[in-house]
């Protein structure tokens, strides 16, 4: 079965490793080098359920089980209406 991008309808994909930002209840986890299929036309990214479950598990271990992340960074946050 041929895959079709649900965003633009393109049928061409490429395997890539990307940076993914996982967000849950105001908490963030940035994961580098995440494998995905990316639409060659619009760039929409598709992750397997296995990859997403692994990211979710890592998030839980860091935020709820005390696992240390490889590194931390501070990110400025602005409200669009105030800039």
For the record, the count of structural domains works out to: 1
Please state roughly what percent of the residues sit in beta strands, choosing from under 5%, 5-15%, 15-25%, 25-35%, 35-45% or over 45%: 25-35%
Q: How do the strands line up in the largest sheet?
A: 1-2-3
List unreliable stretches of 5+ residues: none
Question: Helix tally?
Answer: 1
Secondary-structure class: alpha+beta
Summarize this entry quickly.
With 83 residues, this protein is of the alpha+beta class. It has one helix and three strands, in the order βββα. 19% of the residues lie in helices and 33% in strands.
Polypeptide structure, described:
By secondary structure, this protein is of the alpha+beta class. It has one domain (13-71): Roll (Ubiquitin-like (UB roll)). 19% of the residues lie in helices and 33% in strands. It is built from 1 helix and 3 strands, in the order βββα. The chain has one helix at 49-64, and strands at 13-24, 27-39, 45-46. It has a 3-stranded antiparallel β-sheet with strand order 1-2-3, with helices on one face. The chain is globular. The termini are far apart. The relative contact order is 0.19. The model has no long low-confidence stretch (mean pLDDT 95).
């Amino acid at each position: 079965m041929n895959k079709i991008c649900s965003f633009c309808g393109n049928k061409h994909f490429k395997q890539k490793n990307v940076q993914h930002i996982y967000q849950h209840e105001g908490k963030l986890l940035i994961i580098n080098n995440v494998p995905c299929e990316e639409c060659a036309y619009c760039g929409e990214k598709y992750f397997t359920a296995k990859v997403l479950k692994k990211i979710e598990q890592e998030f839980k271990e860091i935020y709820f089980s005390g696992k240390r992340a490889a590194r931390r960074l501070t990110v400025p946050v602005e409200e669009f209406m105030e800039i």
